[in-house]
Specification:
The structure holds two protein chains of two kinds. Chain A is an all-beta fold. In chain A, the strands form two sheets. In chain A, strands 2, 4, 5, 6, 9, 10 and 11 form a seven-stranded mixed sheet that branches. Helix content of chain A is 0%, strand content 50%. In chain A, 30% of the residues are buried. Chain B is mostly beta strands. Chain B is 0% helix and 53% strand. Chain B has strands at 3-6, 11-14, 19-21, 23-26, 31-38, 44-50, 56-59, 62-65, 75-77, 86-94, 100-102, 106-111. In chain B, the strands form three sheets. In chain B, strands 2, 5, 6, 10, 11 and 12 form a six-stranded mixed sheet that branches. In chain B, strand 5 (31-38) and strand 6 form a beta hairpin. Chain B is globular and about 45 Å long. Classes of the chains: A mainly beta, B mainly beta. The A-B interface holds A 1, 31, 33, 41-45, 48, 92, 94, 96, 100-109 and B 31-32, 34, 36, 42-46, 49, 51, 89, 93-100, 102-105.
Chain lengths: 115, 112
């Protein structure tokens, strides 16, 4: 399986600011995803990060709030913009395994607290 | 659409007890099914998977069988250890749609 790292691992931010989270994979992957895990909740898919084109967002998530970049096949960033306390969550990136429709492998997550 | 319904927790057990976490699913196609585990303070790890009906996934003493007739994928372990304390998530991926749908998660605490 791919080795996935995320930066930062955690951060405490002020309301109204923005934070960019980085996701680095040790091999080229086609599909990369960003999830949010709110406190005590399950994981919710934010968007699919597409290489060379705009990300595909799920219902309830918009590009202005969560802009995503995917400059190559090993790297992606997620920005949480104009943050509020409701954005306090763990943000995780994942990559698809070798075959479509099979498992995804997750990064360690970024724990974000917004004051 | 796809959805996963998972047994609600929290579940508290004594060491060496038998663990079952129920999971049922709704899918439009022929999904792959997964159990992920999140240990305290750690990221999400794939525990086991099954990609077609009647497949049995197994890992670390845990097992789950893909039951198409009952649309279920229940997780079982015959003798739990304190180190099995974690949050367990059932998930599915429809082969026609790469997205993962997760259950709500079940918190399991094993006491010595």
């Amino acid at each position: 399986s791919a080795v996935i790292s995320q930066k930062p691992s955690r951060d405490i931010c002020q309301r109204g600011t923005s934070l960019t989270i980085q996701c680095q994979v040790d091999s080229q992957v086609t599909m990369m995803f960003w999830y949010r895990q709110q406190p005590g909740q399950s994981l919710t898919l934010i968007a699919t990060a597409n290489q060379g084109s705009e990300a595909t967002y799920e219902s309830g998530f918009v590009i202005d709030k969560f802009p995503i970049s995917r400059p190559n096949l090993t790297f992606s960033t997620l920005t949480v913009s104009n943050m509020s306390p409701e954005d306090s969550s763990i943000y995780l990136c994942s990559v698809e395994g070798r075959r479509r429709g099979h498992e995804q492998f997750f990064g360690p997550g970024t724990r974000l607290t917004v004051l | 659409g796809n959805s996963v319904t998972q047994m609600e927790g929290p579940v508290t057990l004594s060491e060496e007890a038998f663990l079952t976490i129920n999971c049922t699913y709704t899918a439009t196609g022929y999904p792959s099914l997964f159990w992920y585990v999140q240990y305290p303070g750690e990221g999400l790890q794939l525990l086991l998977k099954a990609t077609k009906a009647d497949d049995k996934g197994s890992n670390k003493g845990f097992e789950a069988t893909y039951r198409k007739e009952t649309t279920s994928f229940h997780l079982e372990k015959g003798s739990v250890q304190v180190s099995d304390s974690a949050v367990y998530f059932c998930a599915l991926s429809d082969r026609g749609d790469y997205k993962l749908s997760f259950g709500a998660g079940t918190t399991v605490t094993v006491r010595a």
